[in-house]
């Protein structure tokens, strides 16, 4: 464990108490806990002296809003984050209960890491901003206006935030949006996320006979919906691992030679990558590197598949229905509504005789790219340089935060993604954790962003 100052101990205690609230947005059984987490965030903002805070109800989970406006002539930074978390399942695979945070050391985190659902995504990372604000306020370093918008539906597609943003453009007016909800390469090589992928999330149902059948009496003569679904899914990639949906790649933005070259220069170790997730070989679209495949190329993956008999022992049955949840990660210029439609048409078109197919679109979002030639990016760059002593590199990420491209469309404002997580933090997985090093480094680095942002802005004008 690292030695902590009195303040740092308190930050850690506060963060751990936040992690005890099971704010699982996907499961209505947790609605009151989600509301409790919103109240906790509002209270945390009040305690650090944010001059106006409120909880704004939506048709879903509430939004926590706070603002501390010191001078209308100064720039305004809007901090976005989320207090909701993914379901902890499968709970059996956690070494300690997901909502009873504990500190343990790991080879990557010799100073210790907090293990709990949401430790990194995004309670830990979002809380760093509240503590950075506390530090700036106490030390009289606050040189601009700050707004906080912390939502409770990010993990379920931010369904109600879009309307809120559309209807509150004046309230949310700002010069830049600052977010810690992504990762960095490593502590030896900090990076700033310059991209997010879009998403299109589908659910399919294949129906065969009107009831489950005895597989001896009917087997061989009737299309089995699970067999059919597997065949249909396997048709969605060709042998170069390209997606076969007609039109899928039409609008895909290809990187320039120089962009690909720059990406290839980022530190990456293939055997460490394989070891870290326990695989012997990698697999993906031909013609692209491992890092390109997981960031700047679109994908199609089955997230879950079910149907038929999955209980103990054996039951001979041809099920009436088979289901799958299928998501596609998208890249700039792909429109998720168009892609959902292309998927739907194609999936229907490859259904063999003897089954019917239903396709449903869940949610989606657009991809996003941050330019590096602006003051806010430069300020972030300087901030990492100050606290890590190493220049951060721009790095396109593979995950999605659909609200970020929406901010750009609705508010006309770019987001700067200062994420301090590591891929090994196991976000969305059992044993999610967030390093104390990362947490405290974030609290130290964020105020530097504000400092450089104001300085660069003054120089510019
Ligand atoms: N914080 C993640 C997104 C992320 C993580 C981006 C790491 C880049 C690096 C966010 O909470 C998330 O999980 N987003 C979802 C999408 C959402 C619509 C459910 C995702 O990417 O699957
Ligand atoms: Mn997140
Ligand atoms: Mn997440």
Walk me through this protein's architecture.
It is a single chain. With 461 residues, the chain is an alpha/beta fold. The protein has two domains: 6-196 and 367-460, 3-Layer(aba) Sandwich (Aminopeptidase), CATH 3.40.630.10; 198-252 and 298-365, Alpha-Beta Plaits. The protein contains twelve helices and 16 strands. The strands form four sheets. It has a six-stranded mixed beta sheet with strand order 1-2-6-3-7-15, sandwiched between helices. The radius of gyration is 23 Å and the shape is globular. The mean pLDDT is 97. The structure holds ligand BES and manganese (II) ion (MN) (2 copies). One manganese (II) ion binds next to loops. One manganese (II) ion binds at residues 86, 121, 155, 427-428.
Summarize the entry for a quick read:
The chain is an alpha/beta fold and 461 residues long. 32% of the residues lie in helices and 21% in strands. α4 (161-167) packs parallel to α11.
Question: How is this fold's topology laid out?
Answer:
Elements: H1 6-19, H2 31-47, E1 52-56, E2 63-68, E3 76-82, E4 102-106, E5 109-115, H3 123-138, E6 145-151, H4 161-167, E7 176-179, E8 191-196, E9 198-207, H5 225-234, H6 257-265, H7 270-277, H8 290-293, E10 299-307, E11 321-330, H9 336-349, E12 356-365, E13 368-369, H10 375-388, E14 393-396, H11 403-411, E15 415-417, E16 433-435, H12 436-460
Parallel strand pairs: 3-6, 3-7, 7-15, 8-14
Antiparallel strand pairs: 1-2, 2-6, 4-5, 5-16, 8-13, 9-11, 9-12, 10-11
The chain binds ligand BES and manganese (II) ion (2 copies).
Ligand BES binds at residues 121-122, 154-155, 157, 181-183, 196, 199, 365, 397, 399-402.
């Amino acid at each position: 464990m690292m030695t902590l100052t009195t303040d740092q101990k308190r930050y850690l205690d506060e963060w751990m108490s936040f992690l005890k609230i099971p704010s699982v947005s996907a499961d209505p059984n947790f609605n009151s806990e989600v509301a409790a987490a919103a109240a906790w965030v509002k209270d945390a903002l009040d305690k650090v002296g944010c001059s106006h805070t409120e909880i704004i109800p939506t048709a879903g989970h509430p939004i926590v809003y706070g603002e501390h406006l010191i001078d209308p002539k100064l720039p305004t930074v809007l901090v976005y984050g989320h207090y909701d978390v993914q379901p902890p399942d499968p709970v059996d695979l956690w070494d300690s209960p997901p909502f009873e945070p504990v500190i343990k050391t790991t080879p990557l985190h010799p100073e210790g890491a907090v293990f709990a659902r949401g430790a990194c995504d995004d309670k830990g990372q979002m809380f760093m901003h509240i503590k950075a604000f506390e530090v700036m306020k106490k030390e009289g370093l606050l040189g601009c206006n700050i707004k906080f918008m912390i939502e409770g539906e990010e993990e379920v597609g931010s369904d109600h935030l879009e309307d809120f943003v559309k209807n509150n453009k004046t309230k949310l007016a700002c010069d830049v949006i600052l977010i810690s909800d992504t990762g960095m390469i490593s502590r030896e090589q900090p990076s700033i996320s310059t991209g997010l992928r879009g998403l299109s999330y589908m659910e399919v149902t294949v129906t065969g006979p009107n009831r489950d059948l005895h597989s001896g009496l009917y087997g061989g003569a009737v299309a089995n919906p699970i067999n059919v679904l597997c065949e249909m899914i396997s048709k969605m990639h060709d042998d170069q691992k390209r997606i076969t949906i007609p039109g899928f790649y039409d609008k895909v933005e290809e990187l320039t030679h120089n962009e690909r070259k720059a990406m290839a220069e980022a530190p990456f170790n293939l055997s460490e990558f394989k070891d870290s997730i326990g695989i012997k070989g990698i697999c993906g679209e031909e013609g692209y590197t491992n890092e390109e495949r997981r960031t700047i190329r679109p994908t199609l993956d089955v997230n879950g598949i079910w149907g038929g008999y999955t209980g103990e022992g054996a039951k001979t049955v041809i099920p009436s229905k088979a289901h799958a949840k299928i998501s596609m990660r998208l890249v700039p210029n792909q429109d998720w509504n168009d892609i959902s439609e292309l998927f739907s048409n194609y999936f229907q078109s490859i259904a063999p005789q003897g089954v019917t197919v239903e396709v449903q679109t869940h949610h989606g979002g657009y991809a996003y790219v941050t330019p590096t030639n602006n003051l806010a990016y430069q300020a972030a760059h300087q901030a990492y340089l100050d606290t890590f002593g190493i220049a951060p590199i721009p790095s396109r990420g593979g995950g999605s935060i659909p609200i970020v491209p929406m901010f750009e469309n609705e508010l006309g404002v770019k987001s700067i993604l200062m994420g301090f997580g590591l891929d090994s933090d196991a976000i969305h997985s059992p044993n999610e954790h967030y390093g104390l090093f990362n947490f405290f480094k974030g609290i130290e680095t964020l105020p530097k962003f504000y400092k450089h942002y104001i300085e660069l802005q003054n120089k510019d004008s």
